[in-house]
Every structure is written in structure tokens, then in C-alpha cells.
Amino acid sequence: xxxxxxxxxxxxxxxxxxxxxxxxxxxxxxxxxxxxxxxxxxxxxxxxxxxxxxxxxxxxxxxxxxxxxxxxxxxxxxxxxxxxxxxxxxxxxxxxxxxxxxxxxxxxxxxxxxxxxxxxxxxxxxxxxxxxxxxxxxxxxxxxxxxxxxxxxxxxxxxxxxxxxxxxxxxxxxxxxxxxxxxxxxxxxxxxxxxxxxxxxxxxxxxxxxxxxxxxxxxxxxxxxxxxxxxxxxxxxxxxxxxxxxxxxxxxxxxxxxxxxxxxxxxxxxxxxxxxxxxxxxxxxxxxxxxxxxxxxxxxxxxxxxx
Length: 307
What we know:
By secondary structure, the protein is α/β, with parallel strands linked by helices. Helices cover 39% and strands 17% of the residues. It has a domain at 8-147 and 181-208 and 274-287: Rossmann fold.
């Protein structure tokens, strides 16, 4: 392994973003020790470690010989608000404490664009609190706030692809949002491993490179086109979104994708990545044009039998 590419300690390696990151790490020749709650299939260059963010013994092992931490793990969606705090705030604090104890100085934290408006959701508030812990840790940190992430293995935006099959796609009325392919996000996280003047003590909001992001209607039509459908976009009010969250929670319980907490930030009109938080072009730039990426993602869903 090249000297300039260190071993990383990774949380969330079994998840959507984590798996993409391990794909990119393999391409870059980066080795990883990755934390996972369940047994994982062997991967070249990956040392899987069973445990979770509550297991300090496992975290101490995770940090051993690591030169950088990439903290991806967290709770994205839950009907229990306290789970956001326990996983995203307490879990991040524990990771920081163990990194300091192990002498690992470099810490890359995957947050969320929702942290920019913490008053809108418990999820966003938990991410904002975690960011403050990272910033005051004394470590060499970088925070990455992704917008909506899509790509192979994703189960969140998959709901929109599945709905598009029927020619009608419900979306929050009005508003704009940025988007990023998971492979582009993973490349950024790999690029941030060494730490340098450009990235130290910085908060970045990466996207697909589209200035002003996507109008919700345009994004819905692009997803429809990826599915080979000309969709009719249903612009939903906050009231209808809350009703939908209530129905989804009753039908799917803890597996509901549309929750009351999500409605809080989904109705916000501006989830466009800030130009002031743009990643320097000398460090990283997106490669995947979104319409091409959406079509490839739809094909992956079909090939894997998800659709």
C-alpha cells in the first residue's frame, strides 16, 4: 500500500454509503478496518470488525494502527426520536473519545445537509449537535454534508423509482434540492483521508455540480425518464405529507420511509448545496452526470430484482 494512502477506521461500512466507499478504497489501494453489526462477506483489503458504536472495546480495536477515521454510521430514519440522539450524538462523541485515546488525529465526519436547519427535524438537530462535537474535539476534522444521495444499493430514494413505475410521482410542492451519486461522494471521502490545508477544519456541501440544484418537479421527471416513464408530478402540501407519514407509519411501523420527522425537512424549500461550502476543485469534482446516474441506478434496481 502506498505510504501516502493510510489505513482507515470506518464506521457504517455495511451500509449504502459505506459499501460504495469500500469500493472506491479498493480502487485507490486504501486498506480499511470496518465496523459492522453483522457478519460480512470477506472483501480484499477490508478487515471486518463486529460491533457497534456502544462497544468501546470494538472501537478501540477499530482505531488500532489507523491514521484516519471516516465516521459514516448513524441513524437516518426512525419513529423513535431518542434514537437519533443516541446514535448520531452519543455515538459520535464515543467515536471522538476513542480516536483521541488511540492517538488518531484525522477525523472525517459524514453529516447531512439537514444540519444546516436543525430546527426543522430531530434528525437535523442530532446531526448539528454531532457537528459541534467534532468541531470542538481538537482533532484534525472535516465535515461533509451530503444532499440527497442516490445510486446502487440505496433504499431511500428507491421509493421514488418504484413509484415512478406507475406514472405518478408525489413530491413536496415547490422547492429545490441538490443531489449526489454515492460513487462521487465516496471519491470525496477517499480524497479527504490525508488531511491538508484545503480540508482541515472545513465543512463541505458537495453536489452533482448543477448550479441551483434541481427543482423538485424536474428531479421527479428525471427519475421518471430513468424508469422509461413520463410521470405526472403530484406536488404535495405539508398537510398531505403529514397525512402520508401517518399512513406510512401505520402500515409499515418502524420500516416506514415517510415519517413525521422527515416531513419537517422535506417541506423546506431550499436544500441546495451552498456555493460558500463548495469543495475546492483541486481536491475533488463530481464526475457522474445525474441523468446518466439515475438511468444506471434504475438499471441496477432492475438487474438486482428490486423492481
